[in-house]
Amino acid sequence: MRIADSEQVEGGLERLTLVPESLDDLWHLSHVIEPGDTVSGDTTRRIQRNDDQLRDKGGEREHIWAAITVETVEFARFANRLRVGGEIVDCSREDQLGHHHTLNVEEHTELDVTKRWKPDQRDRIEEAVEATDNPDIAIATVEEGQAHVHTVAQYGAEEVASITATTGKGEY
Predict the structure, then answer these.
(1) DSSP characters for 107-123?
(2) Cα end-to-end span (Å), the chain
(3) What would be the CATH architecture of the domain defined by 2-131?
(4) How far is residue 92's CA from residue 38's CA, in Å, rounded to a whole number?
(5) DSSP state letter for 135
(6) SS3 state at 51
(7) Where are the alpha helices (DSSP H) in the chain?
(8) No. of helices (H) and no. of strands (E), the chain
(9) Which of 18, 72, 142, 167 is 20 to 30 A away from residue 129, measured at CA?
(10) Per-residue pLDDT tens digits for 4-21
């Protein structure tokens, strides 16, 4: 994780600009971002057109900047992203204010998190920053006829490979 910027904002809140650099960083953010926080970043949103001449195609995706008040946070491990949902409170398109939206945060996606940071949350962010330099760890287990390779991450172990082969004598 990289902290790109930090600034105090009104009301005793602090805004951190964070750049998650790994899946572990997204996992840490899922434990730090809480309902009621404000998260902002670049996103795409399907915008409905009201032209009579255009056939309704369900809208087109447009690139916007949006700030949302967090309602839900989901670490989607198998999609390699963090999903942060809530109501849009500030946006580059004023007609989208008040609508609900989900920010899909992926690795190397810059986002701003504005909140009253608790000491344990700041510690967790600092640990994620320090863990960026840690080496990757792999575990290989070998058993008769089977071998498994797992990588160890902060969010858990993940299987990378599984090999099965015969070990007996004979024409195999």
Answers:
(1) TT--EEEEE---HHHHH
(2) 49
(3) Roll (2.30)
(4) 16
(5) P
(6) coil
(7) 23-32, 119-131
(8) 2, 10
(9) 72
(10) 999 999 888 999 999 999
What are 95's two structure tokens?
């007609």
Q: Which of 82, 81, 77 is nearest to 156 (CA)?
A: 77
Read off the pTM. Answer: 0.74
Domain boundaries, the chain: 2-131, 136-172
**Which residues neighbour 60 within 8 Å (Cβ) at sequence distance 6 or greater?**
46, 47, 49
As a whole number of angstroms, the distance between CA 4 and CA 50 comes to 39
Angle, in degrees to the nearest 10, between helices 119-131 and 23-32: 180
Angle at 129 between CA 152 and CA 84, to 5 degrees: 80
By three-state DSSP, how is residue 156 classified?
Answer: strand
Q: Centre a 10 Å sphere on the Cβ of residue 32 and count the other Cβ atoms it contains.
A: 20
Q: Tell me: the pLDDT tens digits for 85-119?
A: 999 999 988 888 899 999 999 999 999 999 999 99
- On the 0-12 / 13-18 / 19+ scale of CB atoms within 10 A, 131 is middle
Structural tokens at position 136:
């990757």
DSSP symbol at 136: P
Shortest CA distance to 2 belongs to which of 103, 128, 124?
128
